[in-house]
Amino acid sequence: MADFVIIPDTSSDLTKELRERFDIPDYIKGLIYFPDGHSELADLDWTKYNPKDFYESMSDKKTIYKTAAAPIENIMEVYEKQLSEGKDILAITLSSALSGTYQTCEIVRKQLLEKYPERKIICVDSKRYSTALSLLVILAAEKRKSGATLEETAQFVEQNKHRIHQMGPMDDLFFLVKTGRISNFKAFFGTLMGVNPMADFNREGLSEVLAKFKGKNAAFDAIIKYMKGTIENPQDQIIFVAHSNRLQAAEMLAQKIKDEFSPKEVIINDIGMSCGASIGPGLCAAFYYGTEISEGLAREKELMNSIIEEQKKPNKE
Question: How far lies 197's CA from each of 46, 189, 227, 307, in Å?
């Protein structure tokens, strides 16, 4: 049986340490366009830039970074290196609702299989991005480690991608709205100071706002309750808490998750440049495996509405 590698893209937020730990040999690199007009291939490891400086540069909402899908020649180079070494490829890309990366990877797949007919490439549209994609890639790596074949691992990703949840507060939706990364924003966009919108993924591969909470304490309380209603087997999970220049909040949320769920591990990480350009400063969210996302987020909306109603009740000491 031929070996296979798992190749994500720069939206995955997988650091070098995590890539080495889970045997992810490479990733395809999208483009970042800087405010001065020049572009660079995105880097998951922040080798040239500091995440704090990057996010603080956006705090005035006048400094805008733009992104573009990985150039086809970069995908070719990354994939062909693995194929030439006798490895098959499972490519897991960010949501096709946000980028043309998946479609480009499919084009590359067809071209390279003509040159390497003995090899296999399977491309999966994750319907996720950022740290949700990180978690999905890690689950795929663990499935591979258990002895699953390329096809079995790809099927596992397809069957479980709508079980990856996110939940956590944003300071506001400015950058997500500007870059089209979020749906149903109009009902929530006019946020006031201290009011934090919170979203989960829908089945189309976009973040959809479910509620907004005034203050971080109310938001964190809602996160834990929402996770209780959607998480599965937390004691067996690696849970991520990702942030964009909100480390203190991420540490607080991580501790609450440890206290409540006793997961196998909680990993705190920075949102990478590729997704950070669209998210902006101010996100602190949990990413975890749970119940399958319902059509139209019907079940998730019902759950969140019940949490909102509960918070409206007088405090019970």
Answer: 28, 9, 16, 14
For helices 72-84 and 101-115, angle between their N-to-C axes, nearest 10 degrees:
40
State how far the Cα of 201 lies from the Cα of 207, in Å rounded to an integer: 4
Q: What are the backbone angles phi and psi of residue 49, rounded to the nearest 5°? A: -130, 155
Distance (Å) of CA 28 to CA 41, 76, 77, 171, 186: 9, 9, 9, 30, 33
What are the backbone angles phi and psi of residue 290, rounded to the nearest 5°?
-160, -150
Give the three-class secondary structure for 217: helix
Angle at 177 between CA 173 and CA 179, to 5 degrees: 125
Tokens 């089209």 found at: 180
What is the per-residue pLDDT across 67-118, written as a single tens digit (0 to 9) for each?
999 999 999 999 999 999 999 999 999 999 989 999 999 999 999 999 999 9
273: closest CA among 19, 40, 18?
40
Sheet holding 207-214, edge to edge: 182-183, 207-214, 195-201
Bridging pattern class, strands 195-201 and 207-214: antiparallel
- Is the model's pTM score more than 0.90? yes
Q: Are residues 75 and 58 in contact, defined by beta-carbon separation less than 8 angstroms?
A: no
With CA atoms as reference, report the closest residue to 41 among 91, 75, 88, 7. 75
Which residue's structure tokens are 């549209």? 125
Q: What is the mean pLDDT of the chain?
A: 91
Please answer whether residues 125 and 118 qualify as being in contact, where contact means their C-beta atoms are separated by less than 8 angstroms: no
The Cα 30–Cα 195 span in angstroms is 32
pLDDT tens by residue, 236-263: 999 999 999 999 999 999 999 999 999 9
